[in-house]
Amino acid sequence: MANKILEVKGLKQYFGTKKAPIKAIDGISFDVYEGETLGLVGESGCGKSTTGRSIIRLYDITEGQIFFKGKNVTEYKSRKDLLQFNREMQMIFQDPYASLNPRMTAGEVIAEAYDIHGLYKNKKERQDKIGSLLESVGLNREHANRYAHEFSGGQRQRIGIARALSLDPSFIIADEPISALDVSIQAQVVNLLKELQKERKLTYLFIAHDLSMVKYISDRIAVMYRGKIVELGEADEIYNNPIHPYTKSLLSAVPQPNPVYERKRVRIPYKHEEVKEDGKVIEAKPGHFVYGTDEQVGRWVSS
Protein backbone atom coordinates (compact mmCIF):
# COMPACT_ATOMS: atom_id res chain seq x y z
CA MET A 1 0.00 0.00 0.00
CA ALA A 2 1.13 3.56 -0.73
CA ASN A 3 2.43 5.81 2.03
CA LYS A 4 0.10 8.14 3.91
CA ILE A 5 0.72 11.69 2.76
CA LEU A 6 -2.04 13.30 4.84
CA GLU A 7 -3.56 12.25 8.17
CA VAL A 8 -6.50 14.16 9.63
CA LYS A 9 -7.34 13.26 13.24
CA GLY A 10 -10.38 14.49 15.14
CA LEU A 11 -10.63 17.72 13.13
CA LYS A 12 -13.12 20.25 14.46
CA GLN A 13 -13.85 23.66 13.01
CA TYR A 14 -16.39 25.74 14.93
CA PHE A 15 -17.54 29.26 14.13
CA GLY A 16 -19.62 31.72 16.13
CA THR A 17 -19.63 31.95 19.93
CA LYS A 18 -18.63 29.36 22.51
CA LYS A 19 -22.18 29.32 23.87
CA ALA A 20 -23.76 28.69 20.45
CA PRO A 21 -21.05 27.35 18.11
CA ILE A 22 -21.72 26.50 14.47
CA LYS A 23 -20.10 23.09 14.05
CA ALA A 24 -18.91 23.29 10.42
CA ILE A 25 -16.64 20.26 10.98
CA ASP A 26 -17.40 18.06 13.96
CA GLY A 27 -14.55 15.66 14.69
CA ILE A 28 -13.62 13.99 11.40
CA SER A 29 -10.68 11.67 10.75
CA PHE A 30 -9.35 10.30 7.47
CA ASP A 31 -6.13 9.55 5.59
CA VAL A 32 -5.02 10.31 2.04
CA TYR A 33 -2.40 8.09 0.40
CA GLU A 34 0.36 9.18 -1.92
CA GLY A 35 -0.72 9.35 -5.58
CA GLU A 36 -4.43 8.80 -4.98
CA THR A 37 -7.49 11.02 -5.37
CA LEU A 38 -9.83 11.13 -2.40
CA GLY A 39 -13.22 12.53 -3.38
CA LEU A 40 -15.08 14.47 -0.68
CA VAL A 41 -18.80 14.78 -1.49
CA GLY A 42 -21.93 16.09 0.17
CA GLU A 43 -24.60 18.74 -0.12
CA SER A 44 -23.97 22.49 0.17
CA GLY A 45 -23.20 23.52 3.73
CA CYS A 46 -22.04 20.09 4.92
CA GLY A 47 -18.47 21.29 5.61
CA LYS A 48 -16.59 20.11 2.49
CA SER A 49 -14.91 23.40 1.58
CA THR A 50 -14.26 24.24 5.24
CA THR A 51 -12.42 20.91 5.52
CA GLY A 52 -10.14 21.82 2.61
CA ARG A 53 -9.49 25.33 3.90
CA SER A 54 -8.75 24.05 7.40
CA ILE A 55 -6.27 21.44 6.13
CA ILE A 56 -4.31 24.03 4.14
CA ARG A 57 -4.29 26.36 7.17
CA LEU A 58 -6.49 29.12 5.76
CA TYR A 59 -8.38 28.72 9.04
CA ASP A 60 -6.98 28.12 12.50
CA ILE A 61 -8.68 24.88 13.52
CA THR A 62 -10.70 24.58 16.72
CA GLU A 63 -9.41 21.14 17.65
CA GLY A 64 -7.63 18.14 16.17
CA GLN A 65 -4.41 17.38 14.36
CA ILE A 66 -3.32 17.45 10.72
CA PHE A 67 -0.20 15.50 9.75
CA PHE A 68 1.34 16.14 6.34
CA LYS A 69 4.22 13.86 5.37
CA GLY A 70 4.48 12.83 9.01
CA LYS A 71 4.71 16.37 10.43
CA ASN A 72 2.00 18.00 12.54
CA VAL A 73 1.25 21.14 10.52
CA THR A 74 -1.19 22.45 13.13
CA GLU A 75 1.87 23.25 15.26
CA TYR A 76 3.48 25.40 12.58
CA LYS A 77 3.77 29.00 13.78
CA SER A 78 6.81 30.45 12.03
CA ARG A 79 6.60 32.02 8.58
CA LYS A 80 9.41 29.73 7.38
CA ASP A 81 7.52 26.54 8.30
CA LEU A 82 4.26 27.79 6.77
CA LEU A 83 5.99 28.82 3.54
CA GLN A 84 7.61 25.40 3.22
CA PHE A 85 4.24 23.73 3.87
CA ASN A 86 2.54 25.91 1.24
CA ARG A 87 5.12 24.94 -1.34
CA GLU A 88 4.10 21.32 -0.85
CA MET A 89 0.32 21.85 -0.64
CA GLN A 90 -1.70 24.12 -2.91
CA MET A 91 -5.38 24.80 -3.60
CA ILE A 92 -7.57 25.24 -6.68
CA PHE A 93 -10.52 27.44 -5.76
CA GLN A 94 -14.15 27.00 -6.76
CA ASP A 95 -14.87 30.28 -8.51
CA PRO A 96 -12.43 31.19 -11.30
CA TYR A 97 -14.07 34.61 -11.54
CA ALA A 98 -13.43 35.55 -7.91
CA SER A 99 -10.10 33.80 -7.30
CA LEU A 100 -8.09 35.76 -9.91
CA ASN A 101 -7.07 39.38 -9.33
CA PRO A 102 -8.65 41.42 -12.19
CA ARG A 103 -5.80 43.95 -12.05
CA MET A 104 -3.12 41.35 -12.69
CA THR A 105 -2.20 39.57 -15.92
CA ALA A 106 -2.21 35.78 -16.00
CA GLY A 107 1.58 35.85 -15.85
CA GLU A 108 1.54 38.10 -12.77
CA VAL A 109 -1.02 35.85 -11.06
CA ILE A 110 1.29 32.85 -11.47
CA ALA A 111 4.45 34.83 -10.64
CA GLU A 112 3.02 36.12 -7.35
CA ALA A 113 4.03 32.82 -5.69
CA TYR A 114 7.61 33.30 -6.91
CA ASP A 115 7.74 36.77 -5.31
CA ILE A 116 6.47 35.39 -1.98
CA HIS A 117 8.92 32.47 -1.97
CA GLY A 118 11.86 34.29 -3.57
CA LEU A 119 12.06 32.00 -6.62
CA TYR A 120 13.02 32.58 -10.28
CA LYS A 121 14.45 36.07 -9.80
CA ASN A 122 15.99 35.97 -13.26
CA LYS A 123 13.44 37.57 -15.62
CA LYS A 124 13.99 35.21 -18.57
CA GLU A 125 13.95 32.11 -16.35
CA ARG A 126 10.72 33.31 -14.76
CA GLN A 127 9.04 33.97 -18.13
CA ASP A 128 10.07 30.52 -19.38
CA LYS A 129 8.62 28.89 -16.25
CA ILE A 130 5.33 30.80 -16.56
CA GLY A 131 5.12 29.95 -20.27
CA SER A 132 5.68 26.25 -19.68
CA LEU A 133 3.05 26.22 -16.92
CA LEU A 134 0.48 27.86 -19.20
CA GLU A 135 1.24 25.31 -21.92
CA SER A 136 0.93 22.44 -19.45
CA VAL A 137 -2.69 23.46 -18.71
CA GLY A 138 -3.64 23.89 -22.38
CA LEU A 139 -3.05 27.63 -22.83
CA ASN A 140 -0.47 29.57 -24.89
CA ARG A 141 2.57 31.50 -23.73
CA GLU A 142 1.02 34.70 -25.17
CA HIS A 143 -1.81 34.39 -22.64
CA ALA A 144 0.61 35.50 -19.92
CA ASN A 145 0.00 39.14 -20.89
CA ARG A 146 -3.80 39.00 -20.78
CA TYR A 147 -6.07 39.97 -17.91
CA ALA A 148 -8.70 37.74 -16.29
CA HIS A 149 -11.65 39.41 -18.06
CA GLU A 150 -10.15 38.44 -21.43
CA PHE A 151 -10.55 34.72 -20.69
CA SER A 152 -13.52 32.37 -20.65
CA GLY A 153 -14.52 30.58 -17.43
CA GLY A 154 -12.71 27.40 -18.43
CA GLN A 155 -9.55 29.31 -19.34
CA ARG A 156 -9.63 31.15 -16.00
CA GLN A 157 -9.82 27.87 -14.15
CA ARG A 158 -6.83 26.64 -16.15
CA ILE A 159 -4.91 29.71 -14.94
CA GLY A 160 -5.98 28.80 -11.40
CA ILE A 161 -4.59 25.29 -11.96
CA ALA A 162 -1.33 26.72 -13.35
CA ARG A 163 -1.03 28.94 -10.27
CA ALA A 164 -1.54 25.91 -8.02
CA LEU A 165 1.23 24.07 -9.91
CA SER A 166 3.66 27.01 -9.87
CA LEU A 167 5.57 25.82 -6.78
CA ASP A 168 5.66 22.15 -7.87
CA PRO A 169 3.49 20.87 -4.98
CA SER A 170 2.92 17.21 -4.20
CA PHE A 171 -0.63 17.66 -2.82
CA ILE A 172 -3.49 19.71 -4.26
CA ILE A 173 -6.86 20.46 -2.70
CA ALA A 174 -9.35 21.00 -5.54
CA ASP A 175 -12.32 22.82 -3.99
CA GLU A 176 -15.23 22.24 -6.40
CA PRO A 177 -13.00 23.25 -9.35
CA ILE A 178 -15.65 22.45 -11.98
CA SER A 179 -18.93 23.54 -10.38
CA ALA A 180 -18.87 27.03 -11.99
CA LEU A 181 -18.13 25.68 -15.49
CA ASP A 182 -20.27 24.47 -18.40
CA VAL A 183 -20.74 20.71 -18.56
CA SER A 184 -18.59 20.30 -21.70
CA ILE A 185 -15.76 22.29 -20.07
CA GLN A 186 -16.06 20.33 -16.82
CA ALA A 187 -14.99 17.13 -18.58
CA GLN A 188 -11.99 18.88 -20.16
CA VAL A 189 -10.82 20.26 -16.80
CA VAL A 190 -11.23 16.91 -15.01
CA ASN A 191 -9.29 15.13 -17.76
CA LEU A 192 -6.58 17.79 -17.47
CA LEU A 193 -6.35 17.18 -13.71
CA LYS A 194 -6.00 13.44 -14.31
CA GLU A 195 -3.21 14.00 -16.87
CA LEU A 196 -1.36 16.38 -14.56
CA GLN A 197 -1.66 13.91 -11.69
CA LYS A 198 -0.01 11.21 -13.79
CA GLU A 199 2.73 13.48 -15.16
CA ARG A 200 3.62 15.19 -11.86
CA LYS A 201 2.82 12.36 -9.40
CA LEU A 202 0.24 14.50 -7.59
CA THR A 203 -2.15 13.58 -4.80
CA TYR A 204 -5.61 15.18 -4.78
CA LEU A 205 -8.33 15.92 -2.28
CA PHE A 206 -11.16 16.51 -4.77
CA ILE A 207 -14.13 18.32 -3.23
CA ALA A 208 -17.40 18.30 -5.19
CA HIS A 209 -21.13 17.69 -5.09
CA ASP A 210 -21.32 16.17 -8.59
CA LEU A 211 -21.28 12.48 -7.71
CA SER A 212 -20.84 11.19 -11.26
CA MET A 213 -17.72 13.33 -11.78
CA VAL A 214 -16.34 12.35 -8.38
CA LYS A 215 -16.65 8.65 -9.26
CA TYR A 216 -14.79 9.27 -12.52
CA ILE A 217 -11.77 10.93 -10.92
CA SER A 218 -11.60 9.40 -7.41
CA ASP A 219 -9.93 6.26 -6.08
CA ARG A 220 -11.80 6.50 -2.77
CA ILE A 221 -14.80 8.57 -1.71
CA ALA A 222 -15.74 10.17 1.61
CA VAL A 223 -19.37 11.23 2.03
CA MET A 224 -19.93 14.22 4.34
CA TYR A 225 -23.12 15.25 6.12
CA ARG A 226 -23.59 17.91 8.80
CA GLY A 227 -19.89 18.22 9.51
CA LYS A 228 -19.33 14.46 9.81
CA ILE A 229 -17.89 11.89 7.38
CA VAL A 230 -20.70 9.34 7.38
CA GLU A 231 -19.23 6.87 4.86
CA LEU A 232 -15.82 6.23 3.32
CA GLY A 233 -14.53 3.56 0.97
CA GLU A 234 -13.34 2.61 -2.50
CA ALA A 235 -15.17 4.56 -5.21
CA ASP A 236 -16.78 1.50 -6.84
CA GLU A 237 -17.76 0.08 -3.46
CA ILE A 238 -19.46 3.30 -2.37
CA TYR A 239 -21.39 3.52 -5.65
CA ASN A 240 -22.36 -0.12 -5.93
CA ASN A 241 -22.93 -0.97 -2.26
CA PRO A 242 -23.79 2.18 -0.28
CA ILE A 243 -24.63 1.55 3.37
CA HIS A 244 -25.50 4.86 5.03
CA PRO A 245 -29.06 6.07 4.19
CA TYR A 246 -27.70 9.53 3.30
CA THR A 247 -25.32 8.02 0.72
CA LYS A 248 -28.18 5.98 -0.76
CA SER A 249 -30.29 9.15 -1.01
CA LEU A 250 -27.48 11.09 -2.72
CA LEU A 251 -26.86 8.32 -5.26
CA SER A 252 -30.57 7.99 -6.06
CA ALA A 253 -30.57 11.64 -7.15
CA VAL A 254 -27.77 11.23 -9.70
CA PRO A 255 -29.27 11.57 -13.22
CA GLN A 256 -28.21 9.03 -15.84
CA PRO A 257 -27.89 9.62 -19.63
CA ASN A 258 -30.41 6.86 -20.24
CA PRO A 259 -34.04 7.88 -20.84
CA VAL A 260 -35.37 4.36 -20.12
CA TYR A 261 -33.58 4.27 -16.76
CA GLU A 262 -34.59 7.86 -15.97
CA ARG A 263 -38.29 7.09 -16.43
CA LYS A 264 -38.03 4.31 -13.84
CA ARG A 265 -35.57 5.97 -11.44
CA VAL A 266 -36.92 6.22 -7.91
CA ARG A 267 -35.39 8.84 -5.64
CA ILE A 268 -34.85 7.83 -2.04
CA PRO A 269 -35.76 10.68 0.35
CA TYR A 270 -33.40 10.99 3.32
CA LYS A 271 -34.89 11.17 6.80
CA HIS A 272 -32.33 12.50 9.26
CA GLU A 273 -31.45 9.97 11.93
CA GLU A 274 -29.58 11.20 15.00
CA VAL A 275 -26.50 9.28 16.07
CA LYS A 276 -26.26 8.84 19.82
CA GLU A 277 -23.18 9.55 21.91
CA ASP A 278 -21.93 5.99 21.40
CA GLY A 279 -21.72 6.61 17.64
CA LYS A 280 -18.38 5.74 16.07
CA VAL A 281 -16.72 4.91 12.76
CA ILE A 282 -17.33 1.21 12.07
CA GLU A 283 -15.63 -0.89 9.38
CA ALA A 284 -18.77 -2.53 7.98
CA LYS A 285 -16.77 -4.28 5.23
CA PRO A 286 -13.01 -4.39 4.57
CA GLY A 287 -12.02 -0.81 3.71
CA HIS A 288 -15.63 0.39 3.89
CA PHE A 289 -16.31 2.64 6.90
CA VAL A 290 -19.64 3.97 8.18
CA TYR A 291 -20.41 6.38 11.02
CA GLY A 292 -23.17 5.34 13.43
CA THR A 293 -23.97 3.13 16.39
CA ASP A 294 -23.55 -0.67 16.20
CA GLU A 295 -27.34 -1.02 16.04
CA GLN A 296 -27.72 1.55 13.27
CA VAL A 297 -24.92 0.19 11.07
CA GLY A 298 -26.19 -3.36 11.52
CA ARG A 299 -29.66 -2.23 10.44
CA TRP A 300 -28.34 -0.25 7.46
CA VAL A 301 -26.19 -3.15 6.24
CA SER A 302 -29.12 -5.57 6.30
CA SER A 303 -31.62 -3.15 4.71
Please characterize this protein's 3D structure.
With 303 residues, this protein is α/β, with parallel strands linked by helices. It has two domains: 4-241, P-loop containing nucleotide triphosphate hydrolases (Rossmann fold); 242-303, no CATH class. It has helices at residues 48-55, 79-88, 106-117, 123-136, 153-165, 183-200, 211-217, 235-240, 245-252, 259-264, 294-302; strands at residues 4-16, 21-33, 37-41, 63-68, 71-72, 89-92, 171-175, 203-208, 220-225, 228-234, 280-285, 288-292. The strands form two sheets. It has an eight-stranded mixed β-sheet, sandwiched between helices. A four-stranded antiparallel β-sheet has the order 2-1-4-5, covered by helices on one side. The radius of gyration is 20 Å and the shape is globular. The two termini are 32 Å apart. This is Peptide ABC transporter ATP-binding protein. One of its GO terms (biological process) is peptide transport. It comes from Lysinibacillus odysseyi 34hs-1 = NBRC 100172. InterPro entries: AAA+_ATPase, ABC_transp_ATP-bind, ABC_transporter-like_ATP-bd, ABC_transporter-like_CS, Oligopep_ABC_C, P-loop_NTPase.
